[in-house]
Amino acid sequence: MRKHLPALLAAPLLLVAGCADSPGQQYEKGYHYGQGLPATHLGNPVNASSAYDGAARSECGEHAETDGVRTTEDWMAGCVDGALGRPASPPASR
User: Is the pTM here over 0.70, yes or no?
Assistant: First the structure.
């Protein structure tokens, strides 16, 4: 039994690690979520400045909180890009 104990302790950790989304997956989920936001009042995203980013970040945060969505920085970056109509640019794998 002693030689199997480390494996029994490590098994739940491996299961949890396998369920976590990668940064790219988190970004994609946020991007698709942001595309569905009514962000037309944010203005012209072609010349998007930090003011547009801030407004989109606020919009994403408010809707995510209302919908009970768990956010991460990668998710938020995707949501902002999606809300502003930017091309998707997921983070490189870490």
Answer: no
